[in-house]
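Example for tutorial group B:
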């Protein structure tokens, strides 16, 4: 599968074509309100363009930042942080009891 260039992605944003596509395992699709839904998180067009740039970047730090932005928008980041904090709390309690 071929990766879209930034110009092709911008053309997709401006066009009326609403077909979905995947970038680095994340689903980009247009909504009826002209926003872009990425893995069930809503982004404005300019945010989606920046997110596309981040996901197609060669820098792993930039790709992780994009991944965290997607998790934050679709509500998953909160659950991940809650689970991690719960596990850390259990480890502290177990360490104190010994």
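The residue assignment follows.
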């Amino acid at each position: 599968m071929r990766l879209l260039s930034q110009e092709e992605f911008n053309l997709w944003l401006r066009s009326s074509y609403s077909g979905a596509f995947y970038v680095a395992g994340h689903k980009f699709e247009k909504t009826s309100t002209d926003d872009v839904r990425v893995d069930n998180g809503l982004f404005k067009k300019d945010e989606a363009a920046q997110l596309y740039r981040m996901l197609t970047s060669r820098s792993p730090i930039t790709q992780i930042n994009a991944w965290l932005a997607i998790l934050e928008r679709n509500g998953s980041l909160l659950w991940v942080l809650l689970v991690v904090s719960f596990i850390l709390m259990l480890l502290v309690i177990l360490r104190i009891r010994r």
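The chain has a mean pLDDT of 90. Compare this with the pattern of hydrophobic and polar residues in the output above.
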